[in-house]
TrEMBL record:
This is Phosphate ABC transporter ATP-binding protein. It comes from Vagococcus coleopterorum. One of its GO terms (biological process) is phosphate ion transmembrane transport. SUPFAM superfamilies: P-loop containing nucleoside triphosphate hydrolases. GO terms for molecular function: ATP binding; ATP hydrolysis activity; phosphate transmembrane transporter activity. The keyword Nucleotide-binding applies. GO terms for cellular component: membrane. Keywords: ATP-binding, Nucleotide-binding, Phosphate transport, Transport. It comes from the Bacteria. Residues 2-243 form the ABC transporter domain. The gene is pstB. Gene3D superfamilies: P-loop containing nucleotide triphosphate hydrolases.
């Protein structure tokens, strides 16, 4: 599905991600963990070329999505970011209605048929587990919702584009425990249809919901494997120390 081979990411001369190689299989959740500044977000955002927007950022090595190099000149970056969507740490709804937020990408792609848009809104909001809460106020502004609801609308906006892969950068760190639980339960369902790669600082969250975990330190991928193995029988001392809270 997605393969990274000897990928480095530089900000000018500083190598924030160092020669990382790993593969993501289809479906399921992979958690990216590691100390602050170890390069998790940089790594994540390079997977759909969001780092193209950062001045001075440069990627070397290869990233292949469905067998094709995503940094190839011929790649349509807008299409790539639809196939590999990104959910940010802070909910970032557009200053429009809930409905217009969800259909934003579809309309940008030229879809105008109201029946198709209506259907996409309901399906995406249902998948994001927020339909029942907002179905009677789809024309209200999305930024008038609670933080947890806003984040689920943002997830619905990504889901409306039917992405194969969803990148998430600490999607619940700005939310209360109940909103966090709602989003975790939703992820547990949507991971059956989507490949989810999620940065989290919350080790309990990683152990609760992820199938695989990758531990990063100082730009290096230290260890990657089934979450149970990483948490219960880590092979590397650095992983063991981090999991035990010693870093
Ligand atoms: N736009 C940028 N320009 C220059 N350096 C950057 C930029 N963004 C990140 N860095 C540096 O790259 C390194 C990795 O940062 P990154 O945000 O990827 O780490 P992280 O593991 O996600 O951290 P955190 O958990 O605190 O979010 C850090 O040393 C950071 O200071």
């Amino acid at each position: 599905m997605l393969t990274v081979d000897k990928m480095s990411v530089f900000y000018d001369d500083f190598e924030a991600v160092k020669q990382v190689s790993m593969s993501f299989e289809e479906k399921g959740i992979t958690a990216l963990i590691g100390p602050s500044g170890c390069g998790k977000s940089t790594f994540l955002k390079s997977l759909n070329r969001m780092n193209d927007l950062v001045p001075g950022a440069r990627v070397t090595g290869a990233i292949e999505y469905q067998g094709k190099d995503i940094y190839d000149e011929a790649v349509d970056v807008t299409q790539l970011r639809q196939d590999i969507g990104l959910v940010f740490q802070q909910p970032n709804p557009f200053p429009f209605s809930i409905y217009e937020n969800v259909v934003y990408g579809l309309k940008a792609n030229g879809i105008k048929d109201k029946a198709i848009l209506d259907e996409a809104v309901e399906t995406s909001l249902r998948k994001a587990a927020i339909w029942d809460e907002v179905k009677d106020k789809l024309n209200s502004r999305a930024d008038s919702l609670s933080g947890g609801q806003q984040q689920r609308v943002c997830i619905a906006r990504v889901l409306a584009m039917n992405p194969k892969v969803i990148l998430m950068d600490e999607p619940t760190s700005a939310l209360d425990p109940i909103s966090t639980k709602e989003i975790e339960e939703m992820l547990d369902t949507i991971k059956r249809e989507h490949t989810i790669i999620m940065v989290t600082h919350n080790l309990q969250q990683a152990s609760r919901i992820s199938d695989k975990t990758a531990f990063f330190s100082k730009g290096h991928l230290i260890e990657f494997g089934p979450t149970k193995d990483i948490f219960l029988t880590p092979q590397e001392k650095a992983t063991e120390n981090y999991i035990a809270g010693k870093l």
